[in-house]
């Protein structure tokens, strides 16, 4: 804990990598002292910009002012009796000042699980294994389980030898209207799309693409057609470095 | 509202942060109600800092323009969520700008390019390169004086983090200190600046 408190400065200046940030935001959601300190340190860091102030090109003003005419300021936050985590997440995007509370509220429960899991293996059954089964039954399968609270539960299993990863969900709530869950391989701060998840509460999906090098697997909420890069903060991050 | 723009002839017009803060918060509140003129005024009062910060972090003027534009569009969109009880309007905006600028350098630029650029530009005179015009600002002078009181390691850690866009792990490597030390220097440095600059929650 004491160690986490010291990350306020690095967090206030965006100097944490994705996983560290996820963990620290989880801590922030519960630590009022750190929230207050982060607010002050952000304010302080912003003062540093005084020393580099530079007049922008005039054209920038034009494009900003032209841009805003097409955008409606988002609905304000109104007190809600029992907001669902998902609605909160999407609405909270771009909130700016304390977006971490939103992300932290939904999930980012970085699970640690190194169990080698072979839940569906059956020695008598000599059948063609599906791609998912090959991963799940691989001798080097690594598993990370995340409880997403009201949003459901999910388990990622990755096999380096198979170079594949599989995600299984239970009671996963649907993505918001017009949106879909997109899966990502995360490595060194880079996100590579691993495909969209079909809309179903309980399913097992093989991620698209090479999984061996991924440090983590993330899920974001994206437009239905998917995005080339995440446009929202992850609602869940499965840390594979801890599972190894 | 040109008074916060850098003044080319060096006449110290200053950036009155105190009275300015209430006015900026007010402009943002009006913007949240859809007042585009208020937002234009907000832009005029903050764009030199926003663009200067983006430029300092991403280095490439075209990228800096994109980052700044995205940040302002985001600020307009989420102006309804700004709460002056949680911090100044300028701080709120610059937090958005910094986040976007850092995302941009981390995703677009190869680490090697950044290293080279940073090393080239971190000679002792470093703040002065992108911002000669900013010298005129009194507020900038105050900030610079405060920065000058930091220890060497604190100052470098803060600058590499804020302007370099490096993670604390990368800063530890660059400064050749243990990770725990980098973490502490970044925080100590900022806390010292906070106290010197009288930033209160």
UniProtKB/TrEMBL annotation, chain A:
Record keywords, A-Z: Cell membrane, Coiled coil, Membrane, Transcription, Transcription regulation, Transmembrane, Transmembrane helix
Main location: membrane
Name of a matching Pfam family: RskA_N
Topology of the protein relative to the lipid bilayer: Single-pass membrane protein
InterPro entries registered for this protein in UniProt: Anti-sigma-K/W_factor, Anti_sigma_zinc_sf, RskA_C, RskA_N
Record domain Anti-sigma-K factor RskA N-terminal: where: 4-46
UniProt cross-references to Gene3D superfamilies, sorted A to Z: Anti-sigma factor, zinc-finger domain
Statement: the UniProt record of this protein carries the keyword Iron-sulfur: no
Signal sequence residues: none
Cellular localization per UniProt: Cell membrane; Membrane
Entry coiled-coil feature ranges: 24-51
Domain Anti-sigma K factor RskA C-terminal, first and last residues per copy: 101-235
Protein known as: Regulator of SigK
TrEMBL record, chain B:
Family note: Belongs to the sigma-70 factor family. ECF subfamily.
Organism (species): Nocardioides furvisabuli
Entry protein name: ECF RNA polymerase sigma factor SigK
Sequence ranges assigned to domain RNA polymerase sigma-70 region in this UniProt record: 43-107
Keywords (A to Z) from UniProt: Sigma factor, Transcription, Transcription regulation
PANTHER family in alphabetical order: ECF RNA POLYMERASE SIGMA FACTOR SIGK, RNA POLYMERASE ECF-TYPE SIGMA FACTO
Superkingdom of origin organism: Bacteria
Occurrences of domain RNA polymerase sigma factor 70 region 4 type (ranges): 142-193
Record-linked InterPro entries: RNA_pol_sigma-70-like (IPR039425), RNA_pol_sigma-70_dom (IPR014284), RNA_pol_sigma70_r2 (IPR007627), RNA_pol_sigma70_r4_t2 (IPR013249), RNA_pol_sigma_r2 (IPR013325), RNA_pol_sigma_r3/r4-like (IPR013324), WH-like_DNA-bd_sf (IPR036388)
Pfam families: Sigma70_r2, Sigma70_r4_2
């Amino acid at each position: 804990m004491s160690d986490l408190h010291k990350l306020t400065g690095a967090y206030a200046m965006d100097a944490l990598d994705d996983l560290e940030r996820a963990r620290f935001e989880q801590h922030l959601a519960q630590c009022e002292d750190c929230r207050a300190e982060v607010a002050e340190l952000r304010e302080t860091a912003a003062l540093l910009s005084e020393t580099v102030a530079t007049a922008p090109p005039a054209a920038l003003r034009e494009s900003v002012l032209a841009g805003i005419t097409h955008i409606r300021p988002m609905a304000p936050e109104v007190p809600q009796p029992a907001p669902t985590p998902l609605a909160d997440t999407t609405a909270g995007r771009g909130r700016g000042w304390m977006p971490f509370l939103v992300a932290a509220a939904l999930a980012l429960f970085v699970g640690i699980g190194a169990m080698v899991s072979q839940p569906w293996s059956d020695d008598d059954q000599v059948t063609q294994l599906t791609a998912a089964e090959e991963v799940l039954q691989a001798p080097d399968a690594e598993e990370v389980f995340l409880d997403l609270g009201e949003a459901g539960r999910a388990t990622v299993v990755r096999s380096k030898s198979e170079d594949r990863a599989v995600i299984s969900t239970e009671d996963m709530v649907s993505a918001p209207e017009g949106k879909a869950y997109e899966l990502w391989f995360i490595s060194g701060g880079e996100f590579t799309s691993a495909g969209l998840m079909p809309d179903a509460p309980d399913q097992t999906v093989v991620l698209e693409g090479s999984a061996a090098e991924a440090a983590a697997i993330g899920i974001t909420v994206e437009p239905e057609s998917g995005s080339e890069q995440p446009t929202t903060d992850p609602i869940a991050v499965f840390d594979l470095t801890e599972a190894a | 509202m040109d008074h916060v723009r850098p003044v080319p002839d060096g006449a110290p017009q200053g950036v009155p942060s105190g009275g300015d803060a209430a006015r900026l918060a007010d402009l943002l509140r009006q913007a949240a109600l859809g007042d585009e003129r208020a937002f234009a005024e907000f832009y005029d009062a903050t764009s030199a800092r926003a663009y200067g910060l983006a430029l300092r972090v991403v280095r490439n003027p075209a990228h800096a323009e994109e980052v700044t534009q995205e940040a302002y569009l985001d600020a307009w969109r989420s102006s309804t969520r700004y709460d002056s009880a949680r911090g100044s309007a300028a701080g709120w905006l610059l937090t958005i700008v910094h986040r976007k600028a850092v995302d941009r350098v981390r995703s677009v630029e190869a680490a090697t390019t950044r290293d080279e650029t940073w090393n080239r530009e971190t000679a002792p005179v470093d703040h002065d390169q992108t911002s000669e015009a900013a010298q005129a600002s009194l507020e900038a002078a105050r900030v610079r004086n405060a920065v000058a009181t930091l220890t060497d390691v604190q100052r470098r850690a803060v600058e590499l983090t804020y302007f370099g866009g490096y993670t604390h792990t990368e800063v530890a490597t660059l400064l050749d200190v243990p990770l725990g030390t980098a973490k502490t220097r970044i925080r100590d440095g900022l806390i010292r600046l906070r106290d010197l600059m009288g930033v209160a929650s």
